[in-house]
Amino acid sequence: MPSTPVVYRAAARLGSGLAPALSLLSAKLAAGHRGRRDAGRRLAAWAGRSRDHSRPLVWLHASSVGEGLQAESVLLDLRRLHPEAQYVYTHYSPSAESLARRLPVDAADYLPYDLPAAAEQLLVTLAPSLIVFSKLDLWPELATRAAARGVAVAMVAATVSPGSGRLRWPARVLLREGYRAVGLAAAVSDEDAARLARLGVGPDRIRVLGDPRFDSVVQRISDIGRDEPLLRFGHGAPTMVAGSTWPGDEAVLLDGFARLYARRPDARLILVPHEPTAAHLTAVEEAARGAGLPAPVRLSAATGPTPLLLVDRVGALATLYGAGTMAYVGGGFRRAGLHSVLEPAAWGVPVAFGPRWGRSRDAALLLEAGAAEALTRNSAPGGEELYQIWRGWIEHEERRATQGERARRLVERGRGASRRSAEMLGQAISSRPLRTSPSAGR
After folding, report:
1. Is the pLDDT of residue 1 over 90?
2. Are 147 and 183 in contact (CB under 8 A)?
3. Do residues 160 and 201 touch, judged by C-beta distance below 8 A?
4. How, if at all, do strands 130-134 and 351-353 pair?
5. In CA terms, which of 82, 152, 167, 299 is 20 to 30 Å from 350?
6. Where in the chain is the domain with CATH 3.40.50.2000?
7. Averaged pLDDT score across all residues of the chain
8. pTM for the complete prediction?
9. 123-152, pLDDT tens digit by residue?
């Protein structure tokens, strides 16, 4: 059976050893370290109290919120197929804590550091029948040790971007044994399947089943009532909702809005920073003042629609996209790339974004369908290009509505991957004998 290279284990030990010092540099790193430090003990305590070894246990892992939402849609379908199973969910990022608390699982916590002793302890105490990694966040020590114990290892929503660092040396060598341990992988596309095989997953173990994010997004949007108070902020005016923005996006947005507002004072901008820290919000307010725009009103203080609404909390973006007649998605001016474009598309609004969208399959699909507009790499500094797109959507309502409808239809056509992925996982559950902890029955 595959096992992780010595160099990987040394790197994992070094990383976990440096974590306390690195956590001093960032509140997010500190929160993650605190969560992982005692996660193994908490999960073992749950197993001691509540693990029923007469039932199969499915362990889903998703690093952060995006991967977690994909896993959630598969989880819901899997629970319908296998209500007899117990379910455990782990995550890596602090951003997924709130999602973890609301998932319909028996236990949820951080994933401990990927060290041999921690992985072995959890496999013994949880005795899973199946471990499922969402997207690409596979941890080699856990995966290889699980496979060695006869636990089924699977991936869902598996996506590998062409520029992924995992495809390059040395990551590809260090992670290869972990991917070789995968028994079933649900890839999003044929291209993802080919890159998964390059990482080490056996080609005969890969199925192309689509992207569960489409199901997740449609479900979340359909759960929002039309009387939702946040939707009122876009009523009665042409409104751009700019979501998950960073400083590079905001410079272009505010300049473009200043140009537009001088011509169309009825226009509105709802600005939703990806990280609404106090310093970030203050910087946006100062930049708006410098652009000659009306003072932004923070969502926490807003009593009704306003020309420039600045959202100062997380968790509202998917709903706020429904308040817009058009959308801008942030991240397209950063190396990390674009954030999710599916939420605004599901609402049936056209989408604009910055030039670094190449790693986003969804952005490419929207552009191909004529449902989105991308700013170009060689555009002049400032918001002139965005202003022209924005103004065009306002002044040519039929074109805007057509692009929005194309976006909505694209999302609808993408549905079904969650059910197909759950059926694949269900086969693994049904074909596996129950895993029993050595301590069970004592």
Report:
1. no
2. yes
3. no
4. unpaired
5. 299
6. 220-413
7. 93
8. 0.88
9. 999 999 999 999 988 999 999 999 999 999
